[in-house]
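Q: What changes when manganese (II) ion is included in the input?
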Amino acid sequence: MDNIQTQLSTIDKSDEYGPFDIIGDVHGCFDELVTLLVKLGYTFEKGNKIQVSHPKGRRLIFVGDLVDRGPNSPDVLRLVMEAVWSGIAFCVCGNHDDKLKRKLIGRDVKVLHGLKETLDQLAKEDESFNSSVVDFLNQLVPHYVFDKGRLAVAHAGLKEDHIGKDSPRIRAFCLYGQTTGEVDEFGLPVRSPWAEDYQGETLVVYGHTVVPEATWMNNTINIDTGCVFGGKLTAFRYPELELVSVDAIQIYYPEKTAL
Ligand code: MN
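A: The predicted holo structure follows.
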């Protein structure tokens, strides 16, 4: 819940019209991300799988959860950081990104749900990379609004009256969605289906809850197709409203521990 005031003005990207390719939860699946970007027409600097651009000027929006569980969170971070800092991409904060940030700045965070994999991978990187990761994670916003309010992107969800606003409550909703306070047979929070009640005119694109296929509900679409659990990595093209996916190379994490 840091820096809410300083980040408020940056939620509004109304004057950014796209076209965009919105990417679901990556969770360290770097190889699948590169394959998906190539399939979407992005090109990489010769011999460098980090610096990405698109010949037609398309740009990327990541729904967050770049890290944890998967095999290569540092290179995912490296690619996305470079793309965000060079104006090719936007990225909203996922609950895993937020938790990694809090761990890296010394907060008391339980190392669960794939965070250990990321910390082990980051331990092999140099100090300057790790400090640029903290800078990057610190500047992530809970949601963005694009295209004169026609499109919003949040990690876990967004209610109509949240759009363009920020508060600790809204931020928690963006990161975790709406939980009912109950837990399921695995001890995980039961999620309330906010999208079923959504009546907004703004299209909300989000991830967080794994679905076998990208799922439309009212004017929302969930594009987390569980790549790290052996599903696929999905992109949603805007304004075309088309889906492009690549299959996971393998199962990196057992799905029943998803959170
Ligand atoms: Mn996720």
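Observations recorded in class: Residues 1-8 have pLDDT under 50 and may be disordered.
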